[in-house]
Specification:
- With 401 residues, the protein is an alpha/beta fold.
- It folds into two domains: 3-192 and 308-398, Zn peptidases (Aminopeptidase), CATH 3.40.630; 196-305, Alpha-Beta Plaits.
- 36% of the residues lie in helices and 26% in strands.
- The chain has helices spanning 3-33, 42-55, 113-129, 152-158, 218-229, 231-236, 274-294, 314-328, 345-351, 383-398, and strands spanning 59-62, 66-72, 75-86, 135-143, 170-180, 184-186, 189-192, 196-203, 207-208, 243-251, 258-259, 262-271, 298-305, 310-312, 333-335, 354-362.
- The strands form four sheets. It has an eight-stranded mixed β-sheet, with helices on both faces. The protein has a four-stranded antiparallel β-sheet with strand order 10-12-8-13.
- The longest helix has 31 residues, at 3-33.
- It is elongated and about 80 Å long.
């Protein structure tokens, strides 16, 4: 592709993204005002279908509330790629004082999925308007249930979203408030961690706090287990394999002078190596049960397996990086570090060549800097023009414009 042709395409996409920006803002505000929890996104799904229909883009339903649209290029080509957005919200009570504040108490788009969905609708509009400039097909995947297990991506894949036709690549993005609007962050190779939920029940013998010798204190034993399990990370995991083990809930239900019969704990285990991940599950169970037994108690440690780790295929990711540099400028394409958060886009990355990048939505000058999953999370809506245009440009370039 010559620099002149590159410039013509880039300018056309940018012009279209600015033209449709007001429409995309309206879409995003509607979605933000009417969020729906995972696998309950009926009205969100209907909204997406209505917008695609208005654009003249055919769609099918997948995984209940999931929607898959298809944009066909008018030039001759059999190539297929896929673009993905997630559509569900979180059980968070919004605290933002804006005109589009959530109208559903206790439910909020606190992770930016309204941004992802409206952005992909914007991309669809650009692609549909430029279909005479590329060949092949572009699948538009609007996926439910990213926030809860088993993850909507796994269900979409089981129901054939990566088949008939099979995409050669799938690309996704995530809102990131720590990156300022107009920039993206991207990383080749391992990017995000696997995620498993850990539950631990330590069963002892309760009694009076003044008579510990008459009891088997599960509080002390649970404390030993928490500390000992950190050796899974510090002394058993290979230093080259990023690993996180955190306990966020410990319930004893005793009193000042009452030792309870049992302690219940919940935590999360995250890793970047699937072999080590399952070895660690075994090690944790053996260690916790052994400590409890040695101190006269019993322990039940259970692992609820979550998403695998997310890996960006190197060749595809370097292509996307280059396209982003062309579109945004090299200074606006940042190198990302490993992020130990989890995303069910990881299922796609384990099944097909994939690239998942972070799109800047923050703007400290406008007071927009709250973290993901907080009640004051919001975006600089200028990011919608950037994200819609960039993804359209990447798709057209990938298909060989």
């Amino acid at each position: 592709m010559s620099q002149t042709t590159d410039k013509i395409l880039r300018e056309k996409v940018k012009r279209l993204s600015q033209d449709i920006h007001p429409d995309i803002v309206k879409m995003r505000r509607h979605l933000h005002a009417y969020p729906e929890l995972s696998f309950q996104e009926q009205k969100t799904s209907a909204f997406i279908k209505g917008e695609l229909t208005a654009m003249g883009i055919p769609w099918t339903s997948v995984a209940g509330t999931g929607v898959v649209g298809m944009v066909g290029g008018k030039l001759a080509s059999e190539r297929v790629i896929a673009l993905r957005a997630d559509i569900d919200a979180l059980p968070v009570q919004e605290k933002n004082n804006v005109s589009y504040t959530s109208q559903h108490p206790g439910v909020m788009h606190a992770c930016g999925h309204d941004f992802h969905t409206s952005s992909l609708l914007g991309t669809a509009k650009i692609l549909q308007g430029m279909s005479d400039t590329f060949g092949g097909k572009i699948k538009l995947i609007f996926q439910p249930g990213e926030e809860v297990l088993p993850g909507g991506a796994s269900i979409m894949i089981k129901e054939g979203v990566l088949d008939k036709p099979k995409p050669e690549a799938i690309i996704g993005q995530h809102a990131m408030p720590r990156i300022t609007v107009g920039k993206i962050g991207i990383r080749s190779g391992k990017h995000m961690a696997s995620m498993d939920a850990i539950t631990v029940r330590v069963i002892g013998k309760g009694g009076h706090g003044a008579e510990p010798h008459q009891n088997v204190d599960p509080v002390v034993i649970a404390a030993h287990i928490i500390i000992a399990l950190q050796q899974i990370v510090s002394r058993i995991a290979h230093p080259g394999d990023p690993t996180v083990l955190s306990f966020g809930k410990v319930s004893a239900n005793g009193a000042v002078n009452v030792i309870p019969d049992e302690v219940y704990m919940e935590g999360t285990f995250r890793a970047m190596n699937e072999v080590w991940r399952y070895e660690a599950h075994k090690r944790m169970k053996e260690m916790a049960e052994g400590i409890a037994q040695s101190m006269g108690a019993t322990c039940e440690l259970k692992v609820v397996r979550g998403y695998p780790f997310l890996i960006n295929e190197k060749k595809l990711t370097e292509q996307v990086r280059q396209y982003a540099i062309e579109y945004l400028g090299e200074e606006n394409v940042l190198e990302e570090e490993i992020w130990m958060a989890a995303e069910d886009f990881a299922y796609y990355s384990q099944a097909a060549d994939s690239c998942f990048y972070l799109c800047g939505v923050g703007n400290p000058d406008k007071g927009i800097s709250s973290s993901l999953h907080t009640p004051t999370f919001d975006i600089d809506e200028d990011a919608l023009a950037v994200s819609s245009g960039l993804m359209a440009y990447i798709a057209i370039r990938k298909l060989g414009y």
